[in-house]
Design brief:
Strand content: 15-25%
Cofactor: Mg(2+)
CATH class: Alpha Beta
Keywords: GTP-binding, Hydrolase, Lipoprotein, Magnesium, Metal-binding, Nucleotide-binding, Prenylation, Protein transport, Transport
CATH topology: Rossmann fold
Bound molecules: guanosine-5'-triphosphate
Number of helices: 8
Radius of gyration: 16 Å
InterPro entries: P-loop_NTPase, Small_GTP-bd, Small_GTPase
Low-confidence stretches: 1-13, 215-219
Number of strands: 7
Number of domains: 1
GO molecular function: G protein activity; GTP binding; metal ion binding
Order of helices and strands: EHEHEEHEHHEHEHH
Helix content: 25-40%
Oligomer: single chain
Family: Belongs to the small GTPase superfamily. Rab family.
């Protein structure tokens, strides 16, 4: 996905996108945001993707917004980490409009976070662009002994809304790169639209990557 990481994280401020785009000579900015209930692991997933590490037992709820930026050839990929707490919801709404993709997380050990996914999807359909790419992620897949939501329940919900789905673990890193890469590839395909190239199919890409890696490294 990325050849260079250019900017670290901030909190509560939009990055100076235009300046960054100009200085990096990018053709397009791709914006992905992470949403879901407080505590499902949005920040941890982003930290695992960005820095390849997991800091256990360090739950400090996100306040407002955080972000990471990655630079791939000709593209700047901004990834926004939103606060799951209800009191920051109006801040999150403001970011939906500019999002090209949404990673919607629940925690496989928390039934309420799964039950709330429908409400999140209603909100997304209300505030986000109609062609936004949505991916459903069941996080904390390493905690199988505390599992409250079976994998097939996640799959069924994703099928109902026609969105791709996978289980991830911000702790072990399982499927973390795949989730971000699949979304970035879909967005890049849409931004460039090579007429002679076959249409990028996010579901097929995920399945192909699964097969490549073998059955058991995926949940
Ligand atoms: N075992 C395990 N713990 C996780 C995983 N992801 C997150 N956690 C833990 O869950 C807690 C909450 O994680 P956060 O990443 O802060 O959750 P969040 O969704 O960003 O929460 P808000 O900022 O309030 O919206 C922390 O204690 C993390 O260490 C995971 O994949 N596996």
């Amino acid at each position: 996905l990325s050849t260079r990481r250019v900017v670290a994280k901030t909190s509560g401020q939009r990055p100076e996108t235009n300046r960054l785009v100009r200085s990096l000579r990018c053709n397009a900015v791709l914006r992905t945001i992470l949403v879901g209930d407080s505590g499902v692991g949005k920040t941890s997933l982003l930290v695992q993707f960005d820095q390849g590490k997991f800091i256990p037992g360090s739950f400090s709820a996100t306040v407002g917004i955080g972000f990471t930026v990655r630079f791939a050839i000709s593209f700047l990929h901004q990834i926004w980490d939103t606060a799951g707490q209800e009191r920051f919801r109006s801040v999150t709404h403001a970011y939906y409009r500019d999002a090209h993709a949404l990673l919607l997380l629940y925690d496989i050990t928390s039934k309420s976070s799964f039950d709330n996914i429908r409400a999140w999807l209603t909100e997304i359909h209300e505030y986000a662009q109609s062609d936004v790419v949505i991916m459903l992620l069941g996080n904390k897949a390493d905690m199988s002994s505390d599992r409250a939501i079976r994998r097939d329940e996640g799959e069924r919900l994703a099928r109902e809304y026609s969105v791709p789905f996978m289980e991830t673990s911000a702790k072990t890193g399982v499927n973390v790169d795949l989730a971000f890469t699949a979304v970035a590839k879909e967005l890049k395909y849409r931004a460039v639209q090579h007429p002679n190239q076959p249409k990028f199919q996010i579901h097929d890409y995920i399945e192909a990557q699964r097969e490549k890696s073998g059955c058991c490294s995926y949940f």
